[in-house]
């Protein structure tokens, strides 16, 4: 904003229209009372809301676009454009579509897990009994495939993480090392 524009607005004291949002609300900026041009008064005039109903105005203020709320609170220096607001609405629709897709996938995954598994491998007869195997010492030992599977599974499973205690421990400070001596 040029110096002459700021000077004219401070002399006339009139508000100027900063912009509109997609719902038709208008946003005005009044010149500041101090010499600081950054601290102007910013106001939103809601479409179809009367001054007698502050509750409805408060609800409309919560539904404002984030970009306009940032502008009203002086977090943002320039008002948002219509194109920026439309791009944000399109982004919100994409996010909602992605959320619906993820929820559907999660529902399908839970249904797949909850469904009873009836595969032909489950209906086969149980494994034959392990045959006795003679060890070097001459004693017989049964070769258990289940025991071997457990050993391989145990090796493939990650080690449990150690549980750290939240109990306080004694503090033992180290001796201070002095430089040069």
TrEMBL record:
GO terms for cellular component: mitochondrion; respiratory chain complex I. Coiled coil: none annotated. GO terms for biological process: mitochondrial respiratory chain complex I assembly. Residues 107-181 are annotated as: Disordered. InterPro entries: ComplexI_NDUFA12 (IPR052618), NDUFA12 (IPR007763). Belongs to the complex I NDUFA12 subunit family. This is NADH dehydrogenase [ubiquinone] 1 alpha subcomplex subunit.
């Amino acid at each position: 904003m040029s110096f002459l524009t700021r000077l004219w607005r401070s002399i006339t004291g009139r508000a100027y229209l900063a912009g509109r949002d997609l719902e038709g609300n208008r946003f005005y900026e009044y010149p500041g009372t101090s010499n600081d041009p950054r601290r102007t008064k910013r106001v939103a005039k809601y479409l179809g809301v009367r001054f007698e109903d502050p509750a409805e105005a408060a609800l409309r203020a919560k539904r404002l676009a984030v970009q306009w709320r940032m502008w009203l609170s002086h977090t943002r220096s320039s008002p948002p454009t219509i194109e920026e607001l439309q791009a944000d609405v399109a982004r919100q629709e994409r996010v909602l579509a992605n959320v619906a897709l993820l929820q559907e996938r999660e529902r399908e995954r839970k249904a797949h897990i909850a469904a009873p598994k009836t595969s032909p491998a489950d209906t086969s007869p149980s494994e034959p009994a392990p045959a006795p195997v003679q060890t070097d010492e001459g004693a017989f030992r049964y070769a258990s495939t289940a025991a071997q599977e457990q050993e391989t599974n145990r090796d493939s499973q990650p080690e449990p993480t150690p549980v750290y205690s939240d109990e306080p421990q004694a503090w033992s400070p180290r001796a201070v090392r002095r430089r040069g001596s």
